């Protein structure tokens, strides 16, 4: 092991960091691994957007190593990552041609078809990251094993995911017993690394030995570097959000300037009207007709003034709302012609002019509300179905958000939740239930309010461990643990419907019936932890003035 390579790895910055990936935390290790093994042939099975693959390629290029790199994928998706179109391959191919065409090839085919493209005992480094069921990953390993050179190194992603039907962990336990030279990182969903037993002495990686003192140091070192990569991605997201926000602010400033100019013109017309009226009041009878004509001309110009002012007020208030998401087209295929479920809807957030205009894309949308009547959306009728703008779009369920057991599991392509997770006493239980009815590869969308924009601004963000504790203690929805804190810190000036403190307390004591309380206060970091806990791949996480949005794939 070359210590200089380890030191250099700390300064590694990936060239390809445009889309969220469960592999982000292992990119520094990929970069280092190329320099440590210096393989003649490297193959990756399962590339998707190319985060891991391009980190390997970047290391080959920057180190000047004579390695041939091959990425094998159908670029169609599977039941774990979901289905996607040829646009993904087009982006990966364009990046590959621009940066690594001299030594890298993309093999657009199945793993089984690609195996015939390689000679036996020719591959010195193999990364397996395809379908993650036990049967699939075992098949991939056994199929490609004859193609591995003596002492080849094999990496398996998602060794630390045990939920659903992921089975890499099971195969990894079997391989650890068979191959003593191995190491496992548990961060970023887990990465197992092993070396075949038949390695020549000059090819043996001493840091993979069972009793190597370097193992723990490497695990901690690359976990720390991986954390930096995740933070860098989040920082880039935040920077892009600021750019988008500045653009929106600039557009709004322009609209305000235009409206101010129009308002000044109207005020001038009103002044003319007042002058004409004054002239009438001071004129003699023979001047009456002339004055009336002046009034008539002025009124024609100012006709519709009341309507104009009303429209002006609406436009000004609309500036504080969210325009449709500018890059919505990047995610719209998760919803187009799909079947979904909305918790606590319908919501203007998902309508045509909302930030995420999902309603216009869907085939079917069922709704879940905790009662047949709520203070937000009025009454519901299960027989009439889930109604949006007077049109039935699906079934209407009267169920609690934390108990969807009466709905068949893995039914929906997506689940929506807008401004209701804060009303739930046991959010982890709720998310668990929402995911139970979501298909593998489906997406969960959660919108939660920013405390800075509402009556919660005096309260603290709840700790993730508190949410876990609530789940473990099976907290029910009639819980009022936080009532004392809420009564003390709730800003009634920003919540007129709550009334006086006495009225607010009375309403809060009946929270199980009305669900008005904000049981917990969230931020984007907390929402990310929830998604990571359930092993969701985060597609988008956005901070708006009034809300946080997070979208993750099961």
The portion of residues assigned to helices is 25-40%
The outline comes out as globular
User: Average pLDDT value?
Assistant: 85
Structural class by helix and strand composition:
alpha/beta
What top-tier CATH class of the largest domain fits best?
Alpha Beta
Strand percentage: 15-25%
Number of helices: 16
Rounded to the nearest angstrom, the distance between the terminal CA atoms is: 38 Å
Number of strands: 20
The rounded Rg comes to: 30 Å
Number of domains: 3
Corresponding CATH superfamily of the largest domain: Vaccinia Virus protein VP39
- Please describe the biggest sheet, giving its number of strands, its sense, and whether it closes into a barrel: 7 strands, mixed
CATH topology assignment of the largest domain: Rossmann fold
Contiguous runs where pLDDT drops below 50 for at least 5 residues: 299-322
Strand order of the largest sheet: 5-2-1-6-7-9-8
What is the CATH architecture descriptor of the largest domain?
3-Layer(aba) Sandwich
Question: What can be said about this structure in brief?
Answer:
The chain is an alpha/beta fold. It has 16 helices and 20 strands. It is globular and about 105 Å long.
């Amino acid at each position: 092991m070359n210590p200089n390579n380890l030191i250099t790895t700390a300064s590694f910055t990936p060239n390809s960091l445009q889309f969220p990936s469960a592999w982000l935390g292992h990119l520094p290790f990929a970069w280092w691994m190329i320099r440590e093994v210096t393989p003649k042939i490297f193959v990756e099975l399962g590339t998707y957007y190319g985060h891991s693959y391009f980190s390997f390629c970047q290391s080959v290029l920057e180190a000047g190593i004579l390695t041939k790199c091959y990425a094998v994928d159908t670029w169609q998706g599977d039941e774990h990552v979901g289905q996607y179109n040829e646009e993904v391959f087009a982006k990966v191919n364009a990046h590959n041609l621009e940066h690594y065409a001299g030594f890298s090839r993309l093999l657009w085919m199945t793993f089984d078809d690609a195996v015939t493209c390689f000679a036996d005992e020719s591959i010195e480094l193999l990364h397996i990251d395809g379908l993650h069921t036990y049967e699939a990953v075992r098949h991939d390993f056994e199929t490609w094993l004859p193609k591995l050179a003596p002492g080849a190194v094999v990496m398996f992603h998602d060794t630390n995911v045990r939920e659903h039907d992921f089975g890499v962990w099971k195969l990894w336990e079997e391989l650890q017993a068979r191959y003593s030279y191995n190491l496992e990182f548990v961060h970023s969903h887990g990465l197992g690394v092993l070396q075949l037993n038949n390695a020549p002495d000059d090819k043996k990686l001493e840091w993979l030995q069972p009793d190597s003192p370097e193992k723990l140091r490497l695990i901690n070192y690359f976990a720390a570097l991986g954390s930096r990569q995740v933070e860098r991605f989040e920082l880039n997201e935040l920077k892009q959000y600021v750019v988008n926000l500045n653009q929106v602010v600039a557009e709004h400033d322009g609209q305000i300037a235009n409206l101010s100019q129009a308002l000044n013109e109207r005020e001038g017309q009103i002044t003319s009207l007042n002058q004409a009226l004054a002239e009438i009041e001071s004129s003699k009878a023979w001047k009456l007709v002339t004055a009336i004509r002046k009034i008539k001309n002025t009124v024609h110009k100012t006709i519709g003034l009341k309507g104009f002012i009303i429209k002006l007020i609406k436009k000004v208030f609309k500036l504080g709302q969210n325009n449709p998401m500018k890059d919505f087209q990047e995610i719209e295929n998760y919803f187009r012609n799909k079947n979904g479920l909305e918790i606590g809807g319908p919501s203007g957030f998902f309508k045509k002019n909302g930030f995420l205009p999902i309603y216009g894309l869907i085939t079917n949308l069922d709704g879940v509300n905790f009662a047949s009547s709520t203070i937000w959306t009025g009454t519901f009728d299960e027989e009439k179905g889930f109604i949006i703008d007077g049109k039935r779009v699906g079934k209407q369920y009267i169920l609690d958000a934390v108990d969807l057991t009466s709905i068949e599991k893995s039914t929906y392509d997506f689940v929506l939740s807008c401004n209701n997770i804060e009303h739930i006493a046991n959010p982890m239980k709720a998310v668990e239930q929402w995911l139970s009815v979501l298909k593998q590869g489906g997406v969960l969308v959660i919108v939660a309010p920013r405390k800075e924009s509402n009556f919660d601004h005096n309260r603290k963000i709840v700790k993730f461990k508190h949410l876990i504790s609530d789940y473990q203690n099976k907290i029910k929805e009639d819980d009022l643990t936080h009532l004392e804190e809420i009564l003390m810190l709730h800003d009634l000036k920003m919540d007129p419907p709550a009334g006086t403190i006495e009225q607010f307390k009375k309403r809060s004591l009946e929270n199980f019936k009305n669900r008005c309380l904000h049981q917990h206060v969230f931020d984007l970091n907390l929402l990310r932890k929830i998604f990571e806990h359930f092993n969701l791949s985060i597609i988008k996480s956005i901070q708006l003035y009034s809300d946080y949005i997070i979208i993750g794939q099961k």
